[in-house]
Amino acid sequence: MGIINRFLLFVYAGVILLITLFLAVFVAKAIPASVLANEIEFLMGQSPAMTVLLCFAAYSAYFLLYAFFVGEKKTEEAPKDDCVRIKSENGEVRISKEAVASLVDREAMSVSGVRESNTVVEGAVKEGEAAVSLNMELILTAGANVPEITSTVKEAVKNRIKESLGEENTPIEISVRELSNAPSENQKRVH
User: Fold this and answer.
1) N or C of the chain: less Cβ packing under 10 Å?
2) Domain boundaries, the chain
């Protein structure tokens, strides 16, 4: 609910409170009925009183329509095929593929000789575990020992996936896109 709607609701609640107090005074006969009738007749003869009543009616209609047609906004859920799902006896946990790819890319970038990493995550559902397969595309530094670095990346990523998702046998395919000493797009440069 926005600030304007909150203000209108505050005013509306105040008017309802005043009406309730007025009715309580009337029912308790704290003020004689003839005096109250005379005051009501006087107020109804005033044009500002009619304006207030019309505003009150407009607020009532607004809040009634707001309650039926706007209501609460639901939080957006990630589509089920954009998530890795882990099922257990306690329920289901969905982890976005982007989150898993980000985790994997950070782990790969921590290995010496990896300049850039781009991961595509494929996920399925298995009882009690996430069935994740990873397709990684790496840019390595020129002159790097490719078999050694890719093996280190695989081990580091498998350990991170096991630690984070609980999956033991994650299939990982690595392709080396480039061997380069050029600054990577993901690295920050100091000017």
Assistant:
1) C
2) 3-70, 80-179
